[in-house]
Design brief:
ATP-binding; nucleotide-binding; single chain; helicase activity; mainly beta; five-stranded antiparallel β-sheet
């Protein structure tokens, strides 16, 4: 519902992606990916309770520092509300999803530090291979059939 997962399994070190624009002008955009540094719970609370905040390190973040640590951003739960057939539905969740892998469609418009691309035996949609390989700043090609590296 509006970019919020029904549940999310997270841990320190997990790769996550923002699922909504929080503050686009400083780099907190839908699709931004990085790693969880810490998870903060209220006193006397622990998993599976929703944390107060998740500290995420975003290399491209250019906003104010959190606790004098550059690039660390506290991501707090948000509430999404939808009106469906005269009923109001709400979901409170962290605007994050696990991001160990992305589809080519989700990667459109991103610049990635590195990417492992598996396009299969053939391209099924014209232009998908170009979109996939043009996301990374630099790349190494590995031919799985011969294990050659270029």
């Amino acid at each position: 519902m509006l970019g919020l997962q029904p549940f999310i399994l997270i841990s320190k070190g997990a790769k996550v992606m923002l699922t909504m624009n929080l503050w686009a002008s400083v780099g907190l955009c839908n699709g931004s990916t990085e790693s969880i540094i810490d998870i903060i719970y209220a006193e006397n609370h622990a998993p599976p309770d929703l944390p107060i905040a998740v500290l995420v390190k975003f290399d491209d973040y250019c906003g104010p520092s959190f606790a004098s640590i550059p690039s660390i951003v506290p991501i707090t739960p948000v509430t999404a509300t939808v009106n469906v057939q005269d009923s109001i539905l709400e979901r409170r969740q962290l605007p994050l999803t696990l991001a160990w892998a992305l589809t080519i469609h989700k990667s459109q418009g991103m610049t990635l530090k590195k990417a492992w691309i598996d396009i299969g035996k053939r391209e099924t949609t014209l232009g998908m291979m170009y979109v996939a390989i043009s996301r990374a700043r630099k790349f190494i090609v590995i031919n799985n059939r011969t294990n050659d590296v270029w």
